[in-house]
C-alpha cells in the first residue's frame, strides 16, 4: 500500500470520531457534577509533573491532547489535530490542527503551542514516563504554519500518534506557550490554563479539584453541568455511601462493591475492555529449567484448559467482564484481525479439565506436579488476588500441587527486575492495560532486553524468542497498514502459541451512579477513567436511565 493510501487510512480512522458539541450556552448549564475517586495521583495540574492515573482523571478535564479518542469503539481519534499523516520516507509525522481553538484565557491554540508542549514534555524538568523515549525518537519539531506542525523522528515511528493520544499516554497534552512564558512555571502551576471543556477553579491538596464549564461550544462536547468537583475519597464504602445519599453523583468502585451498589438502588456502569487479568510464567527458557514441567508448552496449555473463565466472570466479577482476546489485544487494537482472534480465543481459552489431565499424562505428569504461584494485584485491581486464588484451586483439581504465596504489589514489583532469581520457575498473576497499540506491551514483556523478558534474554533467546524479535523489528519499520496487520497477527500468534502469558478475563472499569443526579451516558471503551467523559454526561432530566 502506498504512503498516500496510508495517509488516507489514517484520515479515515480519525474521521470515525464524532464529538458531541451541543450548542449549549451558559444559561443552559446547571448544577454541579460531583465525582468521588480513590486517588488524585500527584494532584498537580501541570502535565509534565503527572502521569496516569492523575492525568486521565483530572488533567484530561481541562487539557486537550494532540491526538484524541474514537469515542464509539475506543482507540485513536482526532484531538487538537483533526488528522495526521506519515511522510513517504517514514521519518516525520505531520499534524493538521482543527481551526479556531482557544485556551481558557482567550489565546488561540496554534502549532507553536504544540511544539512548545511536546518540547516541554521531553525537557529536563519533565517527569513524564515517556520523556526519555521522546528525546530518543524525536529529532526536531517544525512549525509549518499556525495550523500545521511536523514532528521529525530519528527513525520510522509508526506508533507516534498513539503515543501522543490520551488513549495511550498523557504526553500529548497541549499547554499555552505565551501564557507560561509570560507568568512563569510556578504561577502556571497555581493558576493553570488549558483548552478543554472545563476551566480550572481551585485545587485543595488532599481533598478536591474544582472546575467550571466553558460556555461556548467545544469540539469534545460542551458540558451540561455548570461545575465539576472531583473529590478524593480513598475508602470505597464511603464513596458508595456518598453516591447513595446524593453527596456525589458518581464514584469509582471495584467488583466487590458492585452488588452492594446495585442493592442500594444505584446504577452500575461498566467500561468495557479496560484491562486483562493474566497469569504468566517466568524463566521457562532458562537452561536450569529444562526439566521443569513449566518449560513444556503443552503443560502450560493444560493449565489454561483447567481454568473455568466463565465461572471467574460470573462469580468473582459479578458478570461484569468478558472472555478475553489474546494477550494485550482488544477489539479496538490497531492493525489487528480482531474477529479472527476472538474466534480463536473462544476455542483456545475454553474450559476442558479432561483434556488438561490427558495432556499432563502424555507429558509425563499423570499425578500432576508442584507449581509455585505468586499471587499479586497491580494497584486498583485488588480482585486479581481473588482470581489468582480461584485458578490455583482449579489447578489442584487436575492434580497440580500449588504453593500459593501472596505479595503486595510493592514487594512483588522489584522481583521482576534484575536477574529475576526469586521468580524463575514460578507462575504469577499480572495484568495488561487497555490500549489501542499492542506493540508496546509485547515489547515490554517479551523482548530479550525488556524488563520482563518472558520469552528469552540476551544470553538465551531460543527459536520462538528469535522469531519474536524478527517480527517485532519488522513491525517497527513497516508502513503499509495491511502488512502491519499481518505482522501484528504474527506477533500475537507467536506469544499465544507459546502459552507463556495467558489471559484469564477481559476486565472493565466500574462506577456507581446516582440516577437522580446524572442522566444516562456511556464511557469510552478501554478507558477506565472518566476524565474525557464528564462533558458528555447529561443531567437526569435530559437523558433518563432506562428502567
In summary, what is this structure?
With 547 residues, this protein is of the alpha+beta class. It is built from 18 helices and 16 strands.
Polypeptide structure, described:
With 547 residues, this protein is an alpha+beta fold. 31% of the residues lie in helices and 20% in strands. It contains 18 helices and 16 strands. The protein has helices at residues 3-15, 54-62, 111-121, 131-137, 160-163, 177-183, 185-190, 236-245, 258-263, 297-305, 309-316, 338-348, 353-362, 383-396, 409-412, 439-446, 463-477, 481-498, and strands at residues 32-37, 67-69, 76-78, 81-86, 92-97, 138-145, 148-153, 198-204, 208-213, 227-232, 250-253, 267-281, 370-375, 401-406, 427-433, 501-513. The strands form 3 sheets. It has a 10-stranded mixed beta sheet with strand order 8-9-10-1-11-16-12-15-13-14, with helices on both faces. The protein has a 4-stranded antiparallel beta sheet with strand order 4-5-7-6. A two-stranded antiparallel ribbon has the order 2-3. The radius of gyration is 24 Å and the shape is globular. The N and C termini lie far apart (49 Å). 48% of the residues are buried. Mean pLDDT is 92; it is low at 1-22.
Amino acid at each position: 500500500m502506498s504512503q498516500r493510501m496510508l495517509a488516507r487510512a489514517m484520515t479515515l480512522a480519525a474521521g470515525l470520531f464524532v464529538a458531541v458539541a451541543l450548542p449549549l450556552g451558559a444559561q443552559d448549564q446547571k448544577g454541579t457534577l460531583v465525582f468521588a475517586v480513590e486517588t488524585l495521583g500527584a494532584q498537580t495540574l501541570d502535565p509534565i509533573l503527572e502521569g496516569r492515573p492523575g492525568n486521565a482523571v483530572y488533567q484530561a478535564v481541562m487539557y486537550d491532547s494532540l491526538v484524541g479518542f474514537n469515542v464509539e469503539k475506543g482507540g485513536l481519534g482526532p484531538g487538537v489535530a483533526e488528522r495526521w499523516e506519515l511522510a513517504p520516507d517514514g521519518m516525520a509525522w505531520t499534524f493538521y490542527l482543527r481551526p479556531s481553538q482557544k485556551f481558557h484565557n482567550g489565546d488561540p491554540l496554534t502549532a507553536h503551542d504544540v511544539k512548545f508542549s511536546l518540547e516541554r514534555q521531553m525537557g529536563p524538568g519533565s517527569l513524564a514516563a515517556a520523556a526519555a523515549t521522546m528525546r530518543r525518537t524525536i529529532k526536531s519539531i517544525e512549525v509549518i504554519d499556525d495550523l500545521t506542525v511536523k514532528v521529525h523522528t530519528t527513525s520510522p515511528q509508526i506508533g507516534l500518534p498513539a503515543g501522543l493520544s490520551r488513549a495511550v499516554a498523557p504526553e500529548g497534552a497541549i499547554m499555552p506557550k505565551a501564557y507560561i512564558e509570560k507568568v512563569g512555571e510556578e504561577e502556571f502551576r497555581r493558576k493553570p490554563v488549558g483548552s478543554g471543556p472545563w476551566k480550572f477553579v481551585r485545587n485543595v491538596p488532599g481533598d478536591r479539584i474544582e472546575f467550571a464549564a466553558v460556555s461556548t461550544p467545544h469540539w469534545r462536547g460542551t458540558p451540561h453541568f455548570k461545575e465539576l468537583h472531583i473529590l478524593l475519597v480513598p475508602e470505597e464504602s464511603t464513596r458508595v455511601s456518598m453516591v447513595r445519599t446524593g453527596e456525589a453523583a458518581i464514584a469509582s468502585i471495584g467488583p466487590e462493591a458492585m452488588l452492594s451498589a446495585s442493592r442500594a438502588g444505584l446504577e452500575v456502569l461498566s467500561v468495557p475492555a479496560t484491562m486483562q487479568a493474566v497469569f504468566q510464567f517466568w524463566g521457562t527458557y532458562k537452561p536450569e529449567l529444562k526439566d521443569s514441567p513449566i518449560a513444556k508448552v503443552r503443560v502450560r496449555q493444560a493449565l489454561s484448559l483447567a481454568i473455568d473463565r466463565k465461572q471467574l466472570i460470573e462469580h468473582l466479577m459479578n458478570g461484569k467482564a468478558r472472555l478475553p482476546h489474546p494477550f494485550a489485544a482488544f477489539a479496538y487494537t490497531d492493525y489487528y484481525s480482531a474477529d479472527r482472534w476472538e474466534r480463536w480465543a473462544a476455542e483456545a481459552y475454553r474450559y476442558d479439565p479432561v483434556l488438561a489431565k490427558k495432556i499432563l499424562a502424555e507429558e509425563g505428569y499423570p499425578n500432576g506436579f508442584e507449581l509455585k504461584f505468586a499471587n499479586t494485584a497491580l494497584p486498583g485491581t485488588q480482585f486479581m488476588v481473588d482470581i489468582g486464588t480461584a485458578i490455583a484451586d482449579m489447578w489442584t483439581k487436575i492434580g497440580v500441587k500449588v504453593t500459593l504465596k501472596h505479595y503486595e504489589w510493592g514487594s512483588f514489583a522489584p522481583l521482576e527486575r534484575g536477574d529475576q532469581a526469586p521468580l524463575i520457575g514460578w507462575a504469577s498473576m499480572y495484568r495488561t492495560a487497555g490500549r489501542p497499540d499492542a506493540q508496546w506491551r509485547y515489547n515490554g514483556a517479551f523482548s530479550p532486553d525488556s524488563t520482563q523478558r518472558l520469552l528469552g534474554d540476551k544470553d538465551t533467546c531460543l527459536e520462538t524468542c528469535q522469531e519474536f524479535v524478527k517480527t517485532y523489528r519488522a513491525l517497527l519499520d513497516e508502513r503499509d497498514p495491511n502488512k502491519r496487520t499481518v505482522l501484528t497477527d504474527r506477533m500475537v500468534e507467536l506469544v499465544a502459541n507459546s502459552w507463556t502469558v495467558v489471559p484469564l478475563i477481559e476486565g472493565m472499569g466500574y462506577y456507581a451512579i446516582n440516577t437522580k443526579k446524572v442522566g444516562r451516558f456511556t464511557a469510552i471503551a478501554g478507558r477506565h477513567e472518566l476524565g474525557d467523559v464528564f462533558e458528555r454526561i447529561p443531567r437526569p432530566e435530559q437523558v433518563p436511565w432506562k428502567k
